[in-house]
Amino acid sequence: LEERLRKSDTLSVVGELAAGIAHEIRNPMTALKGFIQLLEANVKEDFSMYFNVITSELSRIESIITEFLILAKPQAISYQEKDVVTIMKETIDLLNAQAILVNVQIQLNHNGSVPLVYCEPNQLKQVFINILKNAIEVMPSGGTIQVDIIMKNENELQVSIIDEGSGIPEDKIKRLGEPFYTTKDRGTGLGLMVSYKIIEEHCGKVEVESKVGNGTAFHITLPIRQTM
Ligand code: ADP
Ligand code: MG
Q1: 197 vs 181: CA distance, rounded Å
Q2: Which ligand 1 atom is the nearest neighbour of the CA of 163?
Q3: Which DSSP state fits 52?
């Protein structure tokens, strides 16, 4: 419990600071990008190797800032009764091109009618994007991602995203969702933090099951509002 409290404390502080800092960083970034382009166009020698590094590092900073902003200032929050299957379908459509490129199939399984969930659809989509992206990234030589949407019990919907990737060692599972925890060369370590925060705000929970060498399952549980 203490661990949980400490974590959510950190999250709210980070959340408050993030928006301000991110905006402050964005403006000089835009100027930097512009001048670097000008420079590249005007230098005689071929420094393209340097410029490539500069450009890719700048875009890394940009993606960190973008993920922070999602966390701190979610665009126009509007909670509503929504069909999670539709949100998931839209998410899969969005990521399919990227998945097909590495021979990854995303298979959506659900049977018939799934009750509506009271949620912020854009935020839920963000969670699905983040977790599906991780799943794709962990399967560089292809495979299938199973997305199961089921009623866990009469009060809860469960969305499971199951990959065939490298898996996560048991002692690392508790580090997921920690700001900046990443094992990737070009990772931000913010995707899961943002996702956990969003699911927490939906009074849901995220559980991770993983087996090294076999794959990982992210189970997201969301409450269904009882209609009177
Ligand atoms: P990033 O993707 O930028 O590294 P995330 O917060 O999305 O940041 O993920 C944090 C870390 O959690 C990843 O670097 C990876 O080590 C681990 N991880 C997340 N999802 C998976 C997965 N499906 N399979 C294996 N490891 C994962
Ligand atoms: Mg990620």
Answers
A1: 15
A2: 23
A3: H
Residue given tokens 């009074």 in the structure block: 203
ipTM over 0.85 threshold: yes
Nearest to 121 by CA among 68, 94, 82, 66: 82
Q: 31: which 2 tokens?
A: 């100027």
Q: What is the mean pLDDT of the chain?
A: 88
Ligand 1 pocket mutation pick from 104, 134, 138, 160 by most atoms within 8 angstroms of CB:
134
Compute, in angstroms, the gap from residue 165 CA to the centroid of ligand 1.
11
pLDDT reading at 202 higher than 80: yes
pLDDT of 86 reads 95
Euclidean distance between CA atoms 189 and 64, whole angstroms: 9
110 strand-pairing partners: 149
**What is this structure's pTM?**
0.79
Distance CA 92, CA 125 (A): 10
Q: How far apart are CA 206 and CA 18, in angstroms?
A: 23
Ligand 1 mutation target, pool 106, 173, 192, most atoms within 8 A of CB:
192
Please name the residue whose Cα sits nearest to atom 20 of ligand 1. 134
Listed range (28-32, 61-65, 112-116, 216-220) with the worst mean pLDDT? 61-65
119, 104, 132, 105: which is closest to 191 by C-alpha? 132
Residue ranges of alpha helices (H) inside the chain are 2-42, 48-72, 84-101, 121-137, 170-173, 191-201
